[in-house]
Amino acid sequence: NSRYIFIGLFSDTWMWSDGNSSSFRHWNLKFNNQKINSEKMNWEDALYYCRDHHHDLVTITNMDDQIWIQEKVKEASTPFVWMGLRYTCTLDFWFWVSDEVVSYKNWALDGQMDDCDMSGAMETGGKYKWFKRNDADMFNFICSKHPPGE
């Protein structure tokens, strides 16, 4: 029988590069124990694999998500890893397949134009930037799990 109770206050050493502290921890719930899928698939096959076996292709909505995922992609055997980021040429914008808003961005300045049949992939080394890649490219990928309560 414990004599202690938790009141929601904690000490934390994580902080943003600009010095502000970070107490956001939702990434633990979305990505806990999710490993890189070592199979090589095109973007569409990777999407359906994640939806059949887990929840969805990974979504990155903030710097905490980015840091968590870039640690995981180091295990990949391909130069890029698919994310759930897709371009629609008819409406001319990028969107997450999970319906999250594309607010946080980490694009490489690669000079590529947005084009049909393009999706987002994270490089598995370097600065872990996002690149626009053709859907037919064969890469490893990472799935997200069901959020709690679903």
TrEMBL record:
UniProt cross-references to Pfam families, sorted A to Z: Lectin_C
Domain C-type lectin: 24-144
SUPFAM superfamilies: C-type lectin-like (SSF56436)
PROSITE patterns (UniProt xref): C_TYPE_LECTIN_2 (PS50041)
SMART domains: CLECT
PANTHER family in alphabetical order: C-TYPE LECTIN DOMAIN FAMILY 20 MEMBER A-RELATED, C-TYPE LECTIN DOMAIN FAMILY 4 MEMBER K-LIKE-RELATED
Protein known as: C-type lectin domain-containing protein
Lineage of the species this protein comes from: Eukaryota, Metazoa, Chordata, Craniata, Vertebrata
